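Final report, Chapter 2: Outcomes

The project's central promise was a pipeline that accepts a single protein chain and returns its three-dimensional structure in a standardized token representation, suitable for archiving and comparison. That pipeline is now operational. To close this chapter, we reproduce one record exactly as it appears in the project archive, with the input sequence first and the structure output second.
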Amino acid sequence: MNPLLALADHAASWRQASLTAEVEHHARRALIDWFASLLPGCHLAPATLMARALAEGRGPGRAVSYVEGTRGSLRHAALINGTASHTVEFDDIWRWGVYHPGCPTISAALAAAQTKQTDMAALLRAMAAGYEVSCRIAQAVQPSHYDFWHTTGTVGTFGAAAAVAVLLDCDETRTAHAIATAATMAGGLQQAFRGDGMSKPLHPGHAAEAGALAAMAAREGMTGALDVLHGPAGFAAATSEDTGKWDKAIAAIGKPLTITQMTFKNHGCCGHIFAALDATRDLQREHGFAPDDVVSLHVGGYGATKNVCDRPSIVTEQEARFSVQFTVASIMLYGGVRLDAFAPERLVDPAIRAIMPRITVSEDAECEAAFPGARSAKVTIKLRDGRELYRHQPTRKGDPDAPLSDQELDEKFLELVGPVMGAIEAREFLAGLRQGSALPGELKLRRLAA
């Protein structure tokens, strides 16, 4: 079976599919989490810089750019919102695909839904389609895809294309061509976040815009190469170690739907650090040691924990978000790694800097073998009184097997969104996302920074 056609058939079926109570509940959770990630990023670079750079091309339209607080074209809103929603590193994860589906998929889907003036149910159906298509493609090309590629920038293009195709009422054939065209516009390199620079959040922004463009073109009859996913010079061959694990990925479509299996972040940093943070926090709570009591702390993790996040020295906020040493020191000192963990004064905090050299990272064979289905860590802490503490953390708080409750997700939303909307306004907006039938529209945000 051609995997692209199987994915397109599934996506197109969501044009009229009925939302079960379970799928609607999980899709609304994903939308809430997306806004929780988006709105704090609306007053930060690079989204603010992209909005300025593209202001003349905003164009007329009904899609809301939450960074600018204005309406414009579908593609413009998808790009700007997609960039903003990845900036503070709180966006959702599909762990089996090493992928953040929300920022590219919802950014494009909401812009399309606003453009077409549909309702909440249509948006949620499109989200379910975009999540399923992109997550299954991610499943087919991992784990080797992640050696060089940022999955949210590459595979996210397919999520955006599928979701927008549903909202544009593309049939199976046009949806297939939307996915096919999206493949040749997918991009996003790992080096963008292994070093410094602002381009990482642009990956899902570009994916949202490119996927939307692919769907818009397919609706008008533009065709793509329908063997582009699995062909000898196609997407999988170019970006993974083989032509893809398509049989396994396609057989899993809808069993269960990926949108019901999301990880929602409990920390505001790279997800490859989460298991180590959870283990450190729990050991400190159980044994009551102070940060100054720690002689050494060692994290054994899977490959990406070592290769991406072993950063004993940091200068910038982005480096700090991808540093085991900085974030583990932060959670020991301050009890959490949320937005305030990356304030300018924290980046130079002498207490954090004093602890960082005591923290080391290595790749653990057992953790690596379990990746990407399990995101685990082994933490060993040696204390000045001679005690040695150990915890094997097999999963992360927020993963499907240790999920954030609705209450915990709401608390995360209010914590992140309250400062930029106001507490009362944030609660009212949250209620609409939980229960409303109308699409979200413009919001009045407080501008906290230039």
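Archive annotation: The first helix runs from residue 3 to 13.
This record, like all others produced under the grant, will remain available to the consortium after the project formally closes.
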